[in-house]
Design goal:
This protein is 65% helix and 1% strand. The protein is mainly alpha-helical and 447 residues long. It folds into 2 domains: 209 residues, Arp2/3 complex 21 kDa subunit ARPC3; 170 residues, Hypothetical protein af1432. The longest helix is centred in the middle third of the chain and has 33 residues. The chain starts with a helix and ends with a helix. The C terminus is likely disordered.
Amino acid sequence: MSTALKVLILIVATASVTALAVATFLFPLSDGFGYVDLAFWTATALATSAAPVRLPRGVFIAVATCPILAASFLGGPAAGAWVALVGTFELRELNGRIPWYGTVYNHAATVVPAAVGGTVYLALAGAGPFEATPLTLLAAVASGLSFFAINSVLVSAAIALREEGSSLRSILMSDWAIVASSFVALSPLAWLMALVSVAVGEWAALLFGLPLATTRGAYHRVVEIRDMFTQTIRSLASAVDAKDTFTAGHSRRVQEISIEIGRQMRCSEAEVEALEWGGLLHDIGKIGVPDAVLLKPERLTRDERIIMNMHPVKGEEIIKPVKRLAPELPIIRHHHEWYNGSGYPDHLVGEAIPKLARILHVADAFEAMTAARPYRMTPLTAEQAMAELRKYAGVQFDPVMVDAFARTKYVAEVPDAGRPPMAKPIPLLAQAAAMRAGSQGPAGEGR
């Protein structure tokens, strides 16, 4: 665990204890809302926390927000905070699958937004018994938005610090974007739960278990469909790699390098996703290339080169019917365009080549140079490959993309003649004198 993550856990845990104490002493339980009611909403939250859904980047999400918000509407900020603290225990925590500090942080990251959300509702709707009015509905929505914003930032921040190479922005734009609209919609549902519990009885609020289960199921299906889509793409990429034992895993490695370059270029999450899938599918057109050409160990003839150079166009034709993969089409078609216009298939020049295709071209070339091929059984070293990228920067490759690749982990320790030299610190006078005195002593003894 990094120092930054330790500091974050300490800060958020302290903030949650403070928020819980302040809410308890400044905003005691509302009139008509007793400990039995608190226990009911806590039990409801426990039931809805039992089976969280894991989103692609590692965020776990449940529908316990609904009873937490309902408790804060009925009992005030203290009620919501206590339900958030006790009602969000999961089987993963009880089974020891989450370390103790992870459990502390998960609960703290729920208590803080619950206390803030309850305070927002109280400030807008005012104190007093819960009533079904447009004002309380508006206050409920504002409370839910506050809860969602704070909780998503706190959870994403922890994941970003836990996983090297991840950023807060990328996690927010990937995981939370998947469920943002439906998650925010839980606040009106919580308002309805509070209304029904007041008008009919708390037992009637249990009828909302079906829509909550449906919402949880929707989260699961979204993730399941995305996973299935990704697995299908990986299978297609594997089908291409399977034609040539020398290129097994090539598409996956190109994908990984492309993503690293994309993050160095501060690409948006949508662009990173396009690199992820485009990296896997960039050579899909090689399915249509005869094995005699694809696996030929000698130099290709002119006619064979024409056939090989058609694989980006064939790849675009194969993927074009899949509308979901429209952002990947420029990557697939143009990943062999040269920066000086002598590439194929369209002879684009410079920045006329799509940015993501320029990124993937660098990744594809580096991976190919550092792996064995039928026409070159001895791969280049990372240093040699980096030298080739520098040599042809501005000719075959975009120099900006080569610079971005030079900052990735793949060549972090590789000597790079093209990398700008780091400025050496100028020693202070006292430091310079000490260094000179230290060097003169042993040198004098050695004469």
